[in-house]
Amino acid sequence: MNPHMYTFLFVCALIFSFADAYGIGANDVANSFATSVSSGTLTLTQAMCIAIVTEFCGAYFLGSGTANTIAGSIVDVTRFNNQPQLLMLGMTLSVLGSATWVIFATSQGWPVSSTHSITGAIIGMGIAAYGGVAIKWGYNGVAKIVTSWFVSPLIAGIVSAIIFLATKYIVLQHENSFKRGLLAIPFYIFITFWVNITFIISKGLPGTNAVKWSFRKIVGISCAISGGIAIISYFTYSIWLRRKLRDGEDMKAWMIPFAAFIKKQPIVPELTEEDIKAAKEAAELEAQEVEDKPKTFVQKAKAILMNGLNKDVRNIDNPRLAAIHARAKKYDNKTELLFEFVQVLTACAASFAHGSNDVANAVGPLSTVYRIWQTGKVPGKSVSVAAWNLAFCAAGIDVGLATYGYHIMRALGNNVTYTTPSRGFAAELGTSLTIVTASKIGLPVSTTHCITGAMVGVGLCNGDWRAINWKMFGVTFLSWVITLPFAGLMSGLLFAFCAYSPEKI
């Protein structure tokens, strides 16, 4: 085979992989930041800006392991040894089928699994090419991935529930909850950094071999680094929080490193409910006045580009959710505010973990096509993933997030259960622990499953099953069920249409 005869397939794979990554960014990235936005910890714009960085870094630095699983652990690629170009076609059409379904589902506001989608698409292509025998149905192939779909939400839910229950009984329900919260924050910062630094070191950088240290040594190093960060946070951030929230001082963010040394600041009077209502009405009136004014061309262009960032996704005043939200126990507001920064950290960890795991859904097929185009041969058991493949698809994830991510962010968050900073932090930390662990062992779990399971697990900690929006959960579960067969049917039909069409002689 002369691989460069099929350069057009490689170009198509680039386009379709970017489209799939775009859909992943629009649909799945909301899983990482939905709880932060719905709890009010971050604005939508802030969440988007942070996620663009964390998603890219997670995909680029930790994405190659699960990309190998997607690329070579679903279909028996040795069947294509005599016709590598047929595998190029199959992977190209698989990622097209996956992208079509994920982008369509996003437009409808359905939180679907991109992992389901690409897995189903590759299965459909393999069956269309060589029948069911071409698929690795055993635990070393599809069964391992399918098992993770059921296990990952359960594990994420259990881990998140344990984290929240510990926080609930040790901090939130205690008489001195604020004081206890100040002591707990450095510990949670330690856990968040420890987990992520451990996996970053153990996976290594793209294009290089992982660090040849024992796992015990890696854990020790990450523990030392995280411990240092936690100690610093205790003598800086905790003091800043105490002065700002308990003492009411006008402490600015830049003062955090110097909080122990800055002299007493002016006291900021607490806002009453009337003040908050008046400020909200004034903001709405100002926004209406801006909307009514004629816009210049530059303003119109800016409005189009920023459209995805100017959406209300919190659902906090939705009357249909009022009964569900009312069943969630409310805790001391100042204690809840302690968890805002930690929730941002855990959201970043969840986003980093998502990038490391779900970029494989776009990169796996692309890397296979790229290697065949380079060598003219079907790759071996382990597909080498080029760093630029990871960067290319990571950029697609960021674009999708920035322009279309608000749809699914609106569907999750407070739409599943009432979310506060402490609840959101527990769900995000449980999700990141589950996903980063899966990424480390090369298991492509679904981020949608993990965060949904985590939010349900935390919501059940209210002690009332009616604190969960089971209708929303049912819609989400149904989307999980139909994704795999739909993507598989689309991919299989596309492959059959292209591979078995009459050839002009």
From TrEMBL:
Q: Give the Gene Ontology MF terms in alphabetical order.
A: phosphate transmembrane transporter activity
Task: List where the protein spans the membrane.
Answer: 86-106, 118-137, 149-171, 183-202, 214-237, 477-500
Question: Its domain of life?
Answer: Eukaryota
Q: How does it sit in the membrane?
A: Multi-pass membrane protein
Signal sequence residues: 1-21
| Keyword Transmembrane helix included in the entry's annotation | yes
Where, per UniProt, does this protein localize?
Answer: Membrane
Q: Which GO terms describe its cellular component?
A: membrane
Q: Name one GO biological process term.
A: phosphate ion transmembrane transport
Report keywords, A-Z: Membrane, Phosphate transport, Signal, Transmembrane, Transmembrane helix, Transport
Name of a matching Pfam family: PHO4
Briefly state the protein's biological role: Sodium-phosphate symporter.
The record's similarity note reads: Belongs to the inorganic phosphate transporter (PiT) (TC 2.A.20) family.
Annotated protein name in UniProt: Phosphate transporter
Supply the source organism's classification.
Eukaryota, Fungi, Fungi incertae sedis, Zoopagomycota, Kickxellomycotina
